[in-house]
Design brief:
The structure holds 2 protein chains of 2 kinds. In chain A, 38% of the residues lie in helices and 22% in strands. By secondary structure, chain A is an alpha/beta fold. Chain A has a 6-stranded parallel beta sheet, sandwiched between helices. In chain A, strands 2-1-4-3 form a 4-stranded antiparallel beta sheet. In chain A, helix 3 crosses helix 8 (206-221). Chain A is elongated, with a radius of gyration of 20 Å. The N and C termini of chain A lie far apart (54 Å). Chain B has one domain (12-109). In chain B, strands 3-2-1-5-4 form a 5-stranded antiparallel beta sheet, with helices on both faces. The chains are: A alpha/beta, B alpha+beta.
Chain lengths: 232, 111
């Protein structure tokens, strides 16, 4: 790999720009895609690799190309700078998530409690409007406080977020769904919210609950056959 | 330069680049194709230095040794290699892929 190619990949990562490194096998000739001067079928294959977020070898004509897909990180927006959020961050980052913690309560959302983590002290609906969750974004609400959780869930439901989870008991969740229904959300949309949040591993402590949440997020992302959640 | 702390997303290429920038001679191995039950998907990477450092993985630990050996040659002469690890179930232990899967691994030097 040439220093130029390496630098270009690093730059794309910094700019959060999706890029594909195409390596001709077995010679090792490399180029970055999509590129205006690359053959159309090679560019198309690169676009597919990015869409599926999957690296692999494709045969075009007589040539084998290995396509390494570099997508920007997945995103996790955690609403509520609470104890469980502190436990969730160190699980989420190695799983490939760029994490943002949202909490207007500055005593919770402090750098001391979340060293090195992006923090927003905006009101959750404004924060979510700003971050614009897409199909590579997960949103988890952990505040337990309808004033904070509900606006975040309202915005998350209006987005393409691939995962929406909300902390709270079955009873809390039922009351939450009723409030969101009153905001105009339909049952089929509300079924996107995973609540009580997390896989059922009988988690008790904050790290255990965080583990159950990240496991559920990964399961949804990887299309695992998860048991259905709430009965609406 | 040490490896990224555990609180960072695994980025083997970045680790390799940091080692290179620190003056190490570095090769990068990448899984390009898999068949059957191989533990790491295509795109998985391992960085190897001439001084013996390793980061990342291309299998469940079965073929890393053989890949590291091959990487030394690529570091030496700059010629990339496409390695083929594929064996029958009974003989899997010989090359190390106990799962019986097959993988291709591309090894290149970081210039």
């Amino acid at each position: 790999m040439t220093p130029e190619i390496l630098a270009a990949i690093e730059q794309a990562k910094r700019e959060k720009r999706p890029v594909v490194l195409a390596t001709q096998l077995p010679t090792g000739e490399q180029q970055l895609l999509p590129a205006p001067d690359a053959p159309a079928d090679l560019n198309d294959a690169a676009t597919r690799a990015l869409d599926r977020d999957e690296s692999g070898t494709v045969k075009l004509g007589e040539t084998d190309w290995f396509l390494q897909a570099y997508n920007p990180p997945l995103r996790l927006i955690i609403v509520g700078a609470v104890h469980i959020a502190q436990a969730l961050v160190p699980f989420a980052v190695p799983c490939g998530f760029a994490v943002t913690v949202v909490d207007p309560r500055r005593s919770f959302a402090s750098d001391e409690r979340f060293p090195g983590v992006e923090i927003s002290t905006d009101w959750p609906d404004e924060a979510l409007d700003k971050f614009a969750p897409d199909s590579r974004t997960a949103v988890v609400t952990l505040t337990h406080d309808p004033k904070l959780d509900d606006p975040a869930l309202d915005r998350a439901l209006k987005s393409q977020a691939f995962y929406i989870g909300s902390l709270g008991s079955r009873r809390t969740h039922a009351a939450r769904l009723k409030r969101l229904r009153d905001l105009g959300h339909q049952d089929n949309a509300l079924s996107r919210i995973r609540g009580p949040v997390g896989l059922n591993i009988e988690a008790v402590t904050a790290p255990e609950i965080a583990l159950s949440i990240i496991a559920e997020i990964v399961g949804v992302r990887r299309n695992a056959p998860l048991p259905p959640k709430s009965s609406l | 330069m040490t490896q990224a702390p555990m609180t960072q997303t695994e980025d083997v290429l970045q680790t390799a680049a940091q080692w290179r920038a620190a003056g190490e001679q570095v090769a990068v191995a990448t899984v390009t194709e898999t068949w059957g039950s191989s533990p790491r998907p295509a795109g998985s990477q391992m960085a190897i230095t001439k001084s013996g450092r390793m980061a990342g993985s291309v299998s469940g630990g079965c073929i890393e040794g053989a890949v590291a050996d091959a990487a030394m040659k690529t570091i030496e002469n700059g010629t990339p290699q496409l390695l083929d690890f594929g064996v029958s179930h009974e003989k899997a232990w010989e090359v190390g892929l106990a799962c019986g899967g097959k993988v291709k691994v591309f090894v290149e030097r970081l210039n």
